[in-house]
Amino acid sequence: MQFNKAVLTDEVQDFISSNLKSDISKLLLKGIDFEGISVQEIVEQIEAKKRSEKKLPTWFNAENIYFPNKLNIEQTSSEATANYKANLVSGKSLIDLTGGFGIDAFYFSKHFEKITHCEINAELSKIVKHNYQQLKADNIDCLNENGIDALKRIDKQFNWIYIDPSRRDDAKQKVFLLSDCTPNIKTFQGLFLKYAENVMVKTSPLLDLKATLTDLNHVKEIHIVALNNEVKELLWILKRNYEGETLVKTVNLQKETNQSFDFNIDEEPECKAEYSLPLAYLYEPNVSVLKAGAFNVISTELNIPKLHQHSHLYTSDSLVEFPGRRFKIEKQIPFNKKAFSKEKISKANVTTRNFPLSVGDIRKKLKIKDGGNIYLFYTTNIKDEKIILVCSKI
User: 278: closest CA among 328, 324, 320?
Assistant: First the structure.
């Protein structure tokens, strides 16, 4: 990756924008004749910009933005999750030790007087600095430096440190354990808390919460951030000298309304869920709640019973607000081919919870096409009976 300013000429920028839907292979065969720019550089800009349209609309819609390679676009935060993070913090100064393409730092800059963006890759640092100028983000300093080294060299207090350790090893293979990431958060957490009272660490959504809590000290909050019901990142908020309970905050960011549910991590093992046969309504938790393992506490807090210890579906007689999908139970039928065939359902949305067959197996066995307004939940009730709940979405 090289920052080639020739890409920023009006002629080249117009070509990139007008070819976002073009067949890349045909462009390569045809050849692109711009002085001082290779075909590969043009193609890289087209592909990266195309990938940014929904994930990074501010960058996509701004003029003269220079895009890094596809891998950087894939690894960067989306604007939706960056905005969520930025709303958790504020103050005079924040240092982003692993700046990357700079999406997070850009959103942090709206809540701080001064942001320091550290990026060890010289070309990427130049690209980010150029883009911030285009976006008029004037309160961000870009340092082409290892973040740990910069922190020690600057040797001053920040209100916040933000770090998103690299989850690629030397062979560019994906890793997710804290000890395998770069830098190693376990090793440097003491240094971070020396230079900032508050530290935010972004990690892979694959990490186990309880296991990671044994690796990190002074964890005040864990944020489980999902976007359109897909967990994107875990955020660990460390506070200097904090020894209290850890609050788990689940959020599912959606177009219209965000779903949230909070609880103290020590509450879950202490809570005892109520159980019931299916009532009038059915509730399916969103993925951030499931990742949090809030299976009993959500039953207790919202006063809604579960269908079974391992089903993670909930039910009630009166409709309640819930961090997930809500359904009206139209009918309950036993799981057997004869009973199902009487319903004459040929098209439905199928979900399984605590059930021996996969969705694919069920569709094949019962000849159900995907889609429509009928929702079928294949699950197990408190009597250990295999049942089908025929539902309509609320």
Answer: 328
In order of 41, 145, 251, 344, the CA distances from 25 in angstroms are 14, 37, 40, 48
- Could you report the per-residue pLDDT of 154-213, keeping only the tens digit for each? 999 999 999 999 876 665 667 667 877 788 899 999 999 999 999 999 998 999 999 999
- The C-alpha atoms of residue 94 and residue 160 are separated, in whole angstroms, by 5
Q: Pull the structure tokens for residue 110.
A: 């709206």
127-166 burial, b if ≥16 CB within 10 A, otherwise e? Answer: bbbbbbeebebeebebbbbbbbebbeeeeeebbbbbbbbe
Q: Under CATH, what is the fold of the domain 5-73?
A: Arc Repressor Mutant, subunit A (1.10.10)
Global pTM exceeds 0.85: yes
C-alpha 1/C-alpha 288 separation (Å) is 35
Alpha helices in 196-264 (DSSP H): 209-213
Q: Name the CATH superfamily, with its identifier, for domain 77-244.
A: Vaccinia Virus protein VP39 (3.40.50.150)
Ordered by start, the domain boundaries in the chain are 5-73, 77-244, 270-393
Q: Are 218 and 238 in contact (CB under 8 A)?
A: yes
Which residue stretches of 243-344 are H helix? 267-270, 287-292, 297-302, 337-341
- Strands (E) across 300-363 are located at 314-316, 324-334, 347-352
d(CA 122, CA 115): 18
